[in-house]
Amino acid sequence: MKKTIVLSIALFFGFISISNAQVDDVKAREILNKVSAKAKVYKNMKFDFTYRMVDKAHDIDESLKGTVTLEGDKYKLIFLGRTIISDAKTVWSFDPDAEEIQISNVSKDADAFNPGKLLTSYDESYRSKLIKTKKEDGKEYYIIDLYPKKGKSFFKIRLKIDKSKLQVVSGTVYGKDNVTYTYSIDTFATNVATADGFFTMNVNEYPDADVVDLR
Predict the structure, then answer these.
(1) For 25-83, how does the pLDDT look when each residue is reduced to its tens digit (9 = 90+)?
(2) Does the structure show a pLDDT above 50 at 120?
(3) Residue 142 belongs to a domain with what CATH number?
(4) Which residues pair with residue 84 across a beta bridge?
């Protein structure tokens, strides 16, 4: 379950900074390019978010909080008690339940976990469509659907984008198993101060954890 949640986080936060995804809808392409261009001017971005999973078949509806900081291909994610950090070369993953730190090289696999990978890369595996523009609490939002062309465990991602700020405020991943994963941005900050070593993990700070080096 935790792995599924973390992978769906990667999907959502990757799409927050979509870079020229191949689309069929001209208007959707124009909006997404503007969102991407705006995201690229920031040194980094930090999001506090709410995750909600709804599985009607098993009567599950749960919400959890998390935070992620993105800086190019570097990231730091804190969620479900876990801390996952990457300096773009190495990935450290601390699981307090297992009292274990796994260390691995960053995968070159296109589907590998990286919540910020689409900041600089180009993804041609999705089509998109502008569904509508809606007003809510005095604000206007674009609703855009993204459709994977093949080989995904989900059939659609729906993005809600603040029209005036050109920022994604929420996204829902629709799984083929009829489970939905929704991520809502609670707070969003840019160009935040980060200390030296912010995107690395000092394993000495976790004396009770077993270190598993997979490099």
Answers:
(1) 889 888 888 888 888 888 999 989 998 999 999 999 999 999 989 888 889 999 888 99
(2) no
(3) 2.50.20.10
(4) 77, 93
Closest alpha carbon to 3 in 126, 145, 102: 102
Cα within 13 Å of Cα(74), Cβ side:
12
Domain count for the chain: 1
Domain carrying residue 81: 2-213
Distance CA 76, CA 72 (A): 11
Tokens read off for 187: 């707070």
Residue 197 Rama label (left phi>0; alpha psi -120 to 50; beta): left
**Spatial distance between the Cα atoms of 11 and 19, rounded to a whole number of angstroms:** 13
What is the pLDDT of the chain when averaged over all its residues?
83
**Reported confidence tier of residue 183, pLDDT bands at 50, 70, 90:** confident
DSSP assignments along the chain, one per residue: -HHHHHHHHHHHHHHTT--S---S-HHHHHHHHHHHHHHHTSS-EEEEEEEEEEEGGGTEEEEEEEEEEEETTEEEEEETTEEEEE-SSEEEEEETTTTEEEEEEPP--TTS--TTGGGTS---SEEEEEEEEEEETTEEEEEEEEEESSS-SEEEEEEEEETTTTEEEEEEEEETTSEEEEEEEEEEEES----TTTTS--GGG-TTSEEEE--
Distance CA 39, CA 161 (A): 13
